[in-house]
Amino acid sequence: MLTQIVRPLVQTQVRLLANSQATQTTLIDTISRWLGYLGVDAKVTKLASDSEGIHVSITVGKPDSCETKDWQKILDNLRSSSDKDNNCEPMNGSQELQLARLLAYLIQAGNPNNNINWNEVENQLQSLQLDHSILSGIQSALKVPQPQNLLDKLDPDVAASAFPFAVKIAWFDQQINPQENHALSALLCAMK
């Protein structure tokens, strides 16, 4: 449902940018406005293009729906981060396994009759650009039913990594059934 709403808007914005005489100004305004729709106070501080894409730097202020204590904790965590090169830490083996099992659980929840064809699933998962090791983990995990207690005591970092993929997997068939909804809710709760 959301993709049916957002994609036409994106297509309209792309046409607007392609036909704009002030493309840079229009793009800066568009980015700020779209993030504003999400309640995020964002200001574009740098915009540059090269042959491969557009590089955008933004400054993000506290979102409207964010409590001050949570925002301060986010800022403190970023300041004390041990990442020297600003890249996300890679997942360890057990986190990758948990991610693969969670995604397999979502696939199984979307196919309650257990009629899962790996070739079809793999083709759908290609759009998510998952690492080969995660894909292999999902394939292995799909060979057995994933237990319901998999959603208990989720690692918050794994839940945060899994959530965007889980939403896309749940939407593969353009509907979310109660089991998929339960799994998505559990991921959201784990991130809080």
Q: What do these coordinates show?
A:
The protein is mainly α. The protein folds into two domains: 2-63, no CATH class; 93-191, no CATH class. Helices cover 58% and strands 8% of the residues. It has eight helices and two strands; from the N terminus they run H-H-E-E-H-H-H-H-H-H. The protein has helices spanning 2-19, 23-37, 68-79, 93-110, 118-126, 132-141, 156-170, 178-191; strands spanning 42-49, 54-60. Strands 1-2 form a two-stranded antiparallel sheet. Strand 1 and strand 2 (54-60) form a beta hairpin. The longest helix is centred in the N-terminal third of the chain and has 18 residues, at 2-19.
Provide tags for this entry.
192 residues, mainly alpha, 2 domains, two-stranded antiparallel sheet, 8 helices, 8% strand
Per-chain topology:
Elements: H1 2-19, H2 23-37, E1 42-49, E2 54-60, H3 68-79, H4 93-110, H5 118-126, H6 132-141, H7 156-170, H8 178-191
Antiparallel strand pairs: 1-2
